[in-house]
Amino acid sequence: MANPPPRSAEITRPRKWRGRSSATWRLFIRNAGAVAGTVVLLAWVGAALAAPRLAPYDPLAISGVSRQAPSPAHLAGTDLLGRDVLSRVIFGARISLAIGLISVAIGVAAGALLGIVAGYYGGKLDFVLMRVVDAMLAFPGLLLALMVIAALGPGLVNVMLAVGISSIPLYARLVRGSCLSIRTIEYVQAARAMGGSDGRVMYRHILPNVFGPIVVLSTLQIGSAILIGSALSYLGMGAQPPTPEWGLMTSEGQAYLASAWWISTGPGFAIFSAVIAIHLMGDGLRAALDPRSTYR
Amino acid sequence: MAAYVGQRIAVLVPVVLLVFSAVFAIMHVLPGDPVQLMLAGAEAGVTTPERIGQLRRSMGLDQPLYAQYSRFIAHAAVGDLGQSIRFQAPVNELVSAAAVQTFELSFAGMIAALFIGVPLGIAAGLYENTWLDSAAMLLALVGVSMPLFWLGLLLIFLVSIHLHWLPAISGGALKGIILPAFTLGFISAGIISRLMRASLIEALRNDYVRTAMAKGLAYRVVAGKHALRNALIPVITVAGLQFGGMLSGAVITETVFSRPGLGSLIVKAILWHDYPLIQGAVLLTSASYVTVNLLIDVLYAWVDPRIRYA
Lengths: 296, 310
Description:
The complex is a heterodimer.
Chain A (H helix, E strand, L loop, with lengths): L19 H10 L2 H18 L1 H4 L30 H37 L1 H15 L4 H11 L3 H27 L3 H8 L4 H37 L11 H8 L8 H28 L7
Helix pairs in contact in A: 1-11, 2-4, 2-11, 4-5, 4-7, 4-9, 4-11, 5-7, 6-7, 7-9, 8-9, 9-10, 9-11, 10-11
Chain B lengths: L1 H27 L5 H9 L6 H10 L6 H13 L13 H36 L4 H15 L2 H15 L15 H27 L2 H8 L4 H38 L5 H11 L2 H29 L1 H4 L2
Helix pairs in contact in B: 1-4, 1-12, 5-6, 5-8, 5-10, 5-12, 6-8, 7-8, 7-10, 8-10, 9-10, 10-11, 10-12, 11-12
C-alpha cells in the first residue's frame, strides 16, 4: 500500500539566502533615526577632514571685532578675542572626533585583552583581573578620568588616555561575559583538541564572536568619549587656549552668556549634534545586529 | 539575608583596598617631584628648600614607599586624610563640609529625575507606539546626548537671564537649587523614563493583568495598581544606581553653577596640585558611590527574594 504523498510536499523555489550581513544592512537602512544620525555624523567627519577649506577664517586668527553677533560676515558670530566662532567650531570637529576615536581604540584594545584573558583562563587570574575592574568601576564615571588627569596633568593627549582608561572596565566586562559562554561551545573545544594554541583560539575562534557587541558598544562609547572629553576641557583639564576645542570654547563664553550667547551655544550645539548622531547610529546598529530582530 | 549581605561586603573589601591603592598611586606615578608641583600650584611658587624639606617630612614622603603606603592606608582607615596644602586645614573637615552640599544637590537631582522620568515613562508605556511614546523616547535620547555643562548654560540663559525666574547662582536659598537639580537630573530622567516604559510594557503583558481585566476591573485600575507596582521595582534599583552616578555629574553641575561641593572641590584641588585634598575628596566620593550601590543591591534583594537565592 503506497502512502499518499504528504500534502505539504509542494515544491517551492528555495528562498534565496542573502545572509545575515545583508539583512543587517536592510534593517539598518530602514531605520530613519539611524540613517539621519549617520548622515549628520558623516557631515561632521567631512567638516573635520576638509576644515581648512570649509572654514571661512583661520580659527586662531582675529578676524573681526570682539563679541560680534552672528552676521553674514561671521555666521556664528565672533568670540571674546574677535575670532570667528564658526571656523573654530569646524576645526573643533577634528579634536572631538579624534578624542572619540583614539580613546575608544585605547579602551577596546586594553579592555578586550583583559576580558578575553580573564574569561578564557578563568580561575585565580580571572578573580584578580575582575577585582581590578571592580575597583575601576568604583569610581563613578568622570571621576576615574579626573584621577588620571590628576596623575598625568592637563592636556589633550592625557584626556584621550584618561577617557580611554575609564572605558576599559566596560569592554573587559563585556568581552569576559561573552568569552565565558563561548569557550564551552564544542567548536572551541575542538579547536583546542586539534592543538590550537591559546592565543590562536582566543584570536580566531572567540574574538570574532564578540565582535558585534564590541562594535555596538564602541559606537556608543565614541559618543560618551566626546561628552567626557569636552567636559574635561570645559573644566580646564583638557585642551588649553587657544585650541579650538568645543568644551573649552563653551567655557570661554560662559562669562559672556548675557551679552554674547553665541560664543557658548555654537560649540555646545556642535557637541550635542555629534553625540546624538552617534547615539542614533549606535542604536540602529544594535537593533540591526541583534539576531532577534528580523527584516520584514 | 544576613549571609547575602555578608557575602556582598566580603567582595567589597578587596575592591575598597584597591581603590585606596589607586588613589595612593596618583601621587607616585607623577613625573617629577610632587612636593615642588604642589607648592608651585598651591602656594604660588614660593619654594624654598626649607619649605620643600618640611613638607616632605610632614607628608612622610622621605620614607620608603611601603612605609608611606601602610601609613596612608592606616590613616585613611581611621578617617585621617591629612592636611590640605592650599587651605592649611585638615582634609577631613573640608571634604565633609563639601560632601553635605553635594548630597543635597544629588538628592534634589534625583527628585527632579524621578519627577520627570517616571510620569513620562508611564505615559510612554501606556500609550505605546503613539506620538507621546515617540516624544518621551526622543527626550530620553536628548538626555543622554546633552553635554551637562551646555544644558546648564542653556538653562541659565533662558530661565535666569531672559525670563528672570530663578537665580543662576545659588546663594543657599531653596530657589537656587532648582536649576542645578534639573540639570543634574536630566540625564537620569531620560534613562529612568526609558526603563519605566519598557518595564511597564512588560508588566502589562503578564497573566495577572489579563486575569484582572477578565474580572472586569477597569484598565485604569489594572494598569495603575497591578502592573505599575511590579513595574516600579527595576526602576527603583536603577534610580539608586543613578544616584551614585550623580556624584560624578555633580563635578560639572557644581562648576557650571559655581556651587561649593565635592565635585568643584576635586576640580580645584587638581588645578592647584593639592594632592592630599584630591586624595581625600576622591576617596570619599568613591566610597559613597560604592556604599550607595551596595545599599541598593541589598534593598533590591530584600524586595525581590529571587536575587538572594540565585
